[in-house]
Write a structure and sequence with these properties.
CATH class of the largest domain: Mainly Beta
Order of helices and strands: HEEEEEEEEEEEEEEEEEEHHHHHH
Strand content: 35-45%
Number of domains: 3
Structural class: alpha+beta
CATH architecture of the largest domain: Sandwich
Distance between the termini: 60 Å
CATH superfamily of the largest domain: Macroglobulin (MG2) domain
Number of strands: 18
Mean pLDDT: 90
Largest sheet: 6 strands, mixed
Radius of gyration: 37 Å
Length: 376
């Protein structure tokens, strides 16, 4: 289970370096820079190691050895036979590259621990043995992107086969797989551009963004990228492709075509009433006794009944397209009637307009049959 560690918690956890006193000698161990002392795998930690004989001391210290034990267990001898009069101070510098193998889980976070060690005697004959450690938090931010096309994780060609002109739904599933929260998570697509931004993504959290399109002919591929910002250090990102194969073509003919070619109608008749095909709300009852042929000639208006006329004009054409055996329409008769009834029931202009625009797009796909009913 990942540990949620925020920057404020880390700084509070680490505190500041505390000198260690032994036989009147002071050890201090820090990093450069001192704050925030938070690193990532592969980062270089610049240790600053100081050994001081306080000015208040009356003895001279002779250090046989000054050593540093790196997080990987390697012991580095920094100096030998160091003589320090009161007030003297020696500073040593040591670099270490953070390795995942050296991590220790301490106080709820992954850390690397470095230890400064000295040994010697002073002029009073006292033995000097002292150590001090420095713990640095190592965060491991990570992000994962999985991209789906029409419900399939189509990383490789060909992906799902989709009829040209049919709707395409891309899903961008973003998960924080690291151990720190991420902010400003941006999801982009090399073809579609910016998909959206997730302000914050907690450890283990998943959010999904979507994009819509219309299938084009041939093999299609696009690449999604998710990029997030951890508390410190560079952004993390992940990529995932998706594919589909656009095959065949949908077709659809306009209300004007069906108005002028009533001899090509299948399953419906020009004199059939609108109210016998669709559920017309009481508020729109004036439309129920109009014929389907009259509906194909509807003119819209600004009020709800005007938008209902606009919708029904396209919906009747959609029915005639879907019912004709030579027209490969993107929707079935049942779906057209159900969706139209639902939109009319809302009495909401915006809801009706959305469906009207969808039918209008499909009704302008062309193809299927010519004016004589011959297949194209």
């Amino acid at each position: 289970m990942p540990i949620v560690v925020t920057l404020a918690v880390l700084v509070s956890m680490l505190g500041t370096a505390v000198p260690v006193m032994a036989s009147e000698i002071t050890l201090a161990k820090n990093t450069d820079p001192i704050s925030p002392n938070i690193y990532r795998i592969g980062d270089t930690i610049n240790y600053v190691l100081t050994v001081s004989n306080p000015v208040t001391n009356t003895a001279t210290n002779t250090l046989d050895v000054v050593q540093d034990i790196l997080p990987d267990g390697t012991t580095v001898t920094l100096a030998t036979n160091v003589v320090q009069e009161p007030g003297d101070s020696n500073t040593y510098y040591l670099d270490y590259v953070v390795d995942v193998a050296d991590l220790q889980f301490i106080a709820g976070a992954w850390m690397v621990v470095n230890t400064l060690k000295i040994g010697g005697t002073d002029s009073l004959g006292d033995i000097i043995n002292a150590t001090t450690g420095k713990s640095s938090v190592v965060i491991q931010p990570a992000i994962d992107l999985e991209k789906y096309v029409n419900g399939e994780d189509a990383d490789t060609p060909t992906g799902p086969s989709i009829v040209v002109g049919a709707p395409v739904l891309w899903e961008y599933i973003v998960t924080n797989t690291g151990d720190v929260d991420l902010t400003n998570v941006e999801v982009t697509d090399d073809i579609l551009g910016l998909i959206g931004t997730i302000p914050s993504l907690a450890v283990g959290e998943t959010q999904t963004l979507t994009a819509n399109g219309t299938a084009a002919a041939g093999q299609y591929a696009n690449l999604g990228t998710a990029t997030g910002t951890p508390p410190v250090g560079p952004d993390v990102s992940d990529e995932d492709p998706s594919h589909y194969l656009g095959e065949g073509e949908y077709s659809g003919l306009t209300p004007g075509f069906w108005k002028n070619h009533t001899d090509l109608w299948v399953d419906y008749t020009p004199g059939q009433f609108v109210g016998d095909v669709f559920d017309i709300p009481a508020e729109l009852s004036d439309l129920a006794d109009d014929t389907l042929l009259e509906a194909l000639a509807y003119k819209g208006g600004k009020d709800a009944i005007g938008m209902a006329r606009n919708l029904l004009r396209q919906a009747v054409a959609a029915l005639l397209n879907a019912s004709h055996p030579l027209v490969n329409y993107p929707a079935t008769v049942t779906d057209i009637i159900t969706d139209t009834n639902d939109a009319l029931a809302t009495l909401d202009r915006d809801a009706m307009e959305v469906l009207k625009d969808q039918f209008d797009m499909w009704n302008n796909l062309e193809g299927g049959i010519d004016a004589h009913g011959n297949p194209l």
